[in-house]
Amino acid sequence: MSQTIWNVEKEIRPVKRWNIEEEAIYILREVAGQFRKPVLLFSGGKDSLILAHLAVKAFLPGKVPFPLLHIDTGHNFPETIAFRDEFANRLGFELIVRKVQDSIDSGRVQEESGPFPSRNRLQSVTLLDAIAELKFDAAIGGARRDEEKARAKERVFSHRNAAGQWDPKAQRPELWHLYNGLLNQDETCRIFPLSNWTEADVWQYIVENQLEIPSLYFSHQRQIVHRDGQLIAITPFTPPQPGERVETLNVRFRTVGDATCTGAVASEASNVKEVLREVLESNLTERSGRNDDHRTEAAMEDRKREGYF
Amino acid sequence: MVVLRIATAGSVDDGKSSLIGRLLYDTKAVYDDQLASIESASRQRGLSEVQLSYLTDGLKAERDLNITIDVAYRYFATPKRKFIIADTPGHFEYTRNMVTGTSTADVSVILIDASRGLFEQSRRHIAISSLLGIKHLVFAINKMDLVNFSEGIYRQFANQLTEVASKLGRFDCAFIPISALHGDNVVEASQHTPWYHGPSLLDYLEQADIETQAYEVGLRIPVQTTVEASGKNGETELYALGLIESGEVAVDDMVTVLPQGTKHTISDLRNVSGAVPSAIQGESVSFKLEPPSPIKRGSFIVGAKDWPKPTERFSAFLCWLSDEPLKLHAEYKLLHTTQVVSAKVTHVVNRIHVESFETEPASSVGTNDIVEVHLTLDQPIFADTFEECRPTGSFVLADATTKATCAAGLIRRLQETSEPVEEVSVGIS
Ligand SMILES: Nc1nc2c(ncn2[C@@H]2O[C@H](COP(=O)(O)OP(=O)(O)O)[C@@H](O)[C@H]2O)c(=O)[nH]1
C-alpha cells in the first residue's frame, strides 16, 4: 500500500492558475453571495478605483449589487472629489457620502487640537455610524497587506464585533478559499479583495487596463513646504506655519487621502507608465508619505482596533 | 506573472523570521522607511544589530514577547515570479495557524536549526503538509555558520529528513544549507559550501514546478451568486456566477443543476475578460442556462454524467482550530463550497499523532488536534473526497452560536445515506 494519505497525481489537462485579479473577483462574488447588504468603501484613490472596476467585471452582464460609500473628511483635494463624482456617474454606481464635518457638528467626535489637526482618525466614527445607519453588514475596502505591518495579518474576511471593533488576537482562521462570513446580530465584516496585491501590482493593473485615475497621482506643480522630512502641499486645511518656506515643486501623490496627512513626493512622472517605473525603483513604502502612521510604532494597529478602514 | 504561494514553518528560534527578512531584504522588497523603523525598534529594545526578523513580526505583542503569534503574509517579486509567503508560527499551540497558512500554499519551506537536533515540530510540519496535499517541501537547513558549514552535518539532516518525509507522504524534497543571518545560499550561492551543488533557496523558488493539479471528477461549478440582465427583447435573464473548481465547460454543453437534477445547456459564457466559447478549471465564469432554471447561491452545476453523490454522512479529517473543545452531537455550521448546512460530529474514530501519523484513541478533541471523525448533516450535500477534488472535498466548521471558524475538514470517505460509516484507519501500512 502507498504510504501517503492522498494520492496526488500529476496533471494531464490544462488548468488556469489563480492570479490576483481572479482571486479578487472570486472574493467580490462571495460578498454578493454571502451578505445581506454590502457596500464598497470608495475614496477616489487608486485602490478603491481598482476595486470598483473589478466589481464591474465580476458581475457582468449584470449590475454591481452594491453602492459606493465615501467618508468625506472635508479635507480632500478638490480633484479627488470631482473625480469621485464623475467616476460613479460614468460607471452607473449609486454613491453615498457621509461627512466627518456632520459628526463634528453633532458632537459625535471632536476636532483634534494642535498645529496640524487631522481628521483621519475621526473618520472611523463617521464610518461606523454610516454602517449602523444604513444597516450594511459588509464593507469592502481596498487595503493591501503590503501597505503596513499590522495589515500583514489581516484576513480577507475580517470580522468586526457588534461595536465595529477588530480583535487581532481573535481572527477567524482562513482556509483555502472558504471564506466564513457568518455573522450574529449587529456584527459586520470588512472585506479586502486586494489583500494579496502590492503597490506595483496596482500600477501594473492600471497600465494594463488603461484605467483613468485622478490627476493628483501624476506630476504637477504645487506649492509645498518641507515638514518633518515630508513634502506637505499647501491647502486651506494645511497652511504654512510661521518660519516655513513655501516652494513650488513638481510633485505627485502616492495616496490621495486626507490632505492633512498625505505627503507628496518630488516626481516628474506624468503618465501611468512613468509612475510604474518610479514605483518599481522607489525605496520608500507608499504609506511613508502619511504622517498619521509615524506617530507611534503601533499607530496603525491602534487605529484598526478602533474600527479604522 | 506567475504567483508562487509559500508556507514557511519552523520551531521557535530556528530562524524563520530572519530568513524571510533576508529574502525580502535581498530582493529589495524592504523599503528604506521600513528599514529605518526596524532599526529604531531594534535600538529601543537595546539590540546592537538590526533585527531583520522585525520585518515580519507585525504586532506589538509579538515584539514584546519575542514570538510570532499569527499568520502574516509577505510579498516579494523577482523578474521571474511573484511570491506570497504565509509566515506561520511554529509553536505547538499555534499549529492551527500552520494549517491555515499551508492550506493555500504551493510549497512548504521548513526551517531546521543545524546546530540543534531534529525536533518533533519539524515532523509535525511535514505531516501537516502531507495532510493538506502539498507536493513540494524545501528544507532550509539553517545556521550552517554555527556548524562550520559542515557537509557531514548537512548530509545527516538530509538523510534523516528524507526518511521522515518518505514515511509521511509523497513529496518532491529539496535540502538547502543556508545561513539566514549571513545570507549564504539564500539568494546567492555561498562560497562556504563548495560541496553543495544545488540551487540557492531563491533559485529553487523561482524554478519550482508548481503546476496546479487538474481534477478528474468532471465539471464542478458551485454557484456563488446570480445577477439579472436584460435579454434581446427586454426580458429579464438570470446568470449564474461561479468558479470552475474542476473540469471544463463550453457553450451548448449539457449540464445538470443540483440539487434539482434538471438538465440544461450553457449559453452566453463569459470569463473575466469577456465572452468565450469555453473555459477551464480555475476560471471565474458567468453563464445562462437554457431552459432557464431558478438557480441561486448554493446551486451546483455539474456535468451531464459525472455527478457527485448526495451524502448526509461521511468521514473526514478535522484539524481542530478553536480553543473550545469539540462538542460531540452538538450542532455546527458546515461551510462546503458555497453552501452552509448544519452538521453534527457523531463519532471520533481516532486522533492522528501528527509526528508519526500513528493513530490513538481519542475521547476529546481540543485545539491543534487532528482527528478522524464521522459527521452527519441535516441535509445532503454534493461532495467529492479531498483526494479527488480539493475544493469540493474540503469544508470548514463554524460554531453554531458564535459563528467563529473552529475546524478545517478534509473529506475522506463519502457514505451513501443508508450505509453505516466504515471504520477505516489512517496511515502507514
Ligand atoms: N548564527 C546564526 N544565527 C541565526 C541564523 N538565523 C537566525 N539566527 C538567530 O537565531 C535567533 C532566532 O531567529 P529568528 O529569526 O527570530 O527565529 P524564529 O523564531 O524562527 O523566527 C536570532 O537570534 C537570530 O539572530 C543563522 O543563520 N546563523
Could you explain the architecture of this structure?
The complex is a heterodimer of chains A (309) and B (429). Chain A is built from 8 helices and 10 strands. Chain A has 309 residues and is α/β, with parallel strands linked by helices. In chain A, the strands form 2 sheets. Chain A has a 6-stranded mixed β-sheet, with helices on both faces. Chain A has a 4-stranded antiparallel β-sheet with strand order 8-7-9-10, with no helix packed on it. The N and C termini of chain A lie far apart (53 Å). Residues 289-297 of chain A have low confidence and may be disordered. In chain B, 18% of the residues lie in helices and 36% in strands. Chain B has 7 helices and 22 strands. Chain B has a 6-stranded mixed β-sheet, sandwiched between helices. Chain B has a 6-stranded antiparallel barrel with strand order 7-8-14-11-10-15. In chain B, strands 16-20-18-17-21-22 form a 6-stranded antiparallel β-barrel. Chain B is globular, with a radius of gyration of 24 Å. The model of chain B is unreliable at 419-429 (pLDDT under 50). Guanosine-5'-diphosphate (GDP) is lined by residues 10, 12-18, 53, 68, 142-143, 145-146, 179-181 of chain B.
